[in-house]
Amino acid sequence: MADKIVVAGVSVDTRHWIGGQRVASAATFTDNSPIDGRPLGEIARGGPAEASAAIAAAKAAFPAWAATSRTERARILHAVADGVEKRIEELAIVETNDNGALLRSHRRGVMPRVAHNFRFFADWLLKLEHEDFETRGHTNHVSWDPAGPSVLITPWNAPLMLATWKVAPALAAGNTVVLKPAEWSPLTASLLADIAAEAGLPAGVLNVVQGYGSEIGDALTSHPDVRRISFTGSVPTARRIAGSAAANLTPLSLELGGKSPLLVFADADLDLAVDLAVEQYDNAGQVCLAATRILVEEPVAEEFTRRFVEKAATLTQGDPRHESTDIGPNIHPRQLEKIDAFVQRALAAGARAVIGGHREDTQYYAPTLLTDVAQDSEIVQEEVFGPVLTLQTFSTDEEAVRLANDTRFGLAATLATGDPERAERVTAQLVAGTVWVNCFFVRDLQAPFGGSRHSGVGREGGTWSFDFYCDVKNTVTAPNGWKNHG
Ligand SMILES: NC(=O)C1=CN([C@@H]2O[C@H](COP(=O)(O)OP(=O)(O)OC[C@H]3O[C@@H](n4cnc5c(N)ncnc54)[C@H](O)[C@@H]3O)[C@@H](O)[C@H]2O)C=CC1
Ligand SMILES: O=C(O)/C=C/C=C(\O)C(=O)O
């Protein structure tokens, strides 16, 4: 196996990064580009041995990193952000080749956000405090102590953005990290390891191991030296991780799937509502937050559908490296098969494809809108993770809320309405970690982020991230301090 591959002119090390060293594995796996299925290279395929080595390195590096002052930790995280900013173009081009998402989004939105993830949590660390309070003259002081080695397991739909949304707060908290990126998109995590080392992050503080799901994952998540596990991905994998973490009672943060609704009320600005709906095809529908169930109030349903079809027809599907492309490929032929199977079962059950309903080839799926779908049908209840939306109608606010809440998920909801009171009333009744009113995907890192029900466990973001990654401590001091006990 070659130690390095070159992807669109960028050299990427294909080995693990453990304790500040590149480490090869005897086994490898092939990483293919979703753009055309071509192999990008052979990647080191870790297992229990690599998992143990990475956790040992994280454990060894922990005391010194935990003892590093907040200002020094923040300084190094800002230096990582500087390194990301210097390499935005390289990161963007590698990520697009590896996961197929749009190059223009990576350049302008995603990679700047990666840098921001580091800057934000570095700055938040410096202002993290809880005002002291008194109990019968005693002072309560709250502090956030580093917890220890943290295992971070991330998916392929937004690889570096979702990885750094976990890596940055974990490092800011004073924890050391073992990051395992998804096997379908491992490359930018390796570049991050280089950037972090160049920024002065000490050896062993960030470790990156690659490998297939449970082959390496079980050893990472069941290890007794791991103090935190944060995972973004599917519900079945979350169950398995929770099972293996249970033996050690390792605290978990789980950000899982969604089947979020977009509620379009008759009083909405219909053009805005249509824009919000068409936006759900972003990243070829591979977004956990996507509002894939469009619920439209009966009187405007026909007009909404007409305008939606018109707008969707303006989308360009194709090579994600081209500036004019709006929808790229799906991550893997297996994912495409899964998407198509969902759609064909829905059509067989009586759904009607207003647009799409078929694959374009082995990597691209036609943007699809399905109507005549039953609330209890698979296509309405299960996450497809492709460019597939359903449309249902409702007649009253009560019905809208009932339909919106009637899945096992609860990640997000989007409302289009011209009535602020209705927005407030409906929002209060929705089960969702995030509700957007007349907007979508406006994200602030200080906001709590996560899902209810099967969409997740816990919240990350701002202080919530530190609450998760740290051992939160309350110190109660008697009125006369230590002198009180002589
Ligand atoms: N919430 C989200 O953002 C995401 C949701 N999904 C959903 O999951 C479906 C399947 O996609 P997959 O790639 O199979 O998701 P997955 O949940 O299996 O994979 C996500 C990550 O978990 C890792 N993993 C798998 N098994 C593991 C184990 N036993 N221990 C530790 N880590 C393990 C994978 O290697 C990858 O890094 C998608 O169709 C979509 O519905 C997938 C990716 C992201
Ligand atoms: O943190 C964000 O801003 C976005 C998160 C998106 C996902 O978790 C996803 O698409 O899987």
TrEMBL record:
InterPro entries: Ald_DH/histidinol_DH, Ald_DH_C, Ald_DH_CS_CYS, Ald_DH_CS_GLU, Ald_DH_N, Aldehyde_DH_dom
UniProt xrefs under Pfam families: Aldedh (PF00171)
Keyword Oxidoreductase listed: yes
Keyword Oxidoreductase found: yes
Location of the active site: 255
GO molecular function: oxidoreductase activity, acting on the aldehyde or oxo group of donors, NAD or NADP as acceptor
Keyword set, alphabetical order: Oxidoreductase
Residue span(s) of domain Aldehyde dehydrogenase: 27-474
Sequence similarity: Belongs to the aldehyde dehydrogenase family.
Official protein name in the record: Aldehyde dehydrogenase
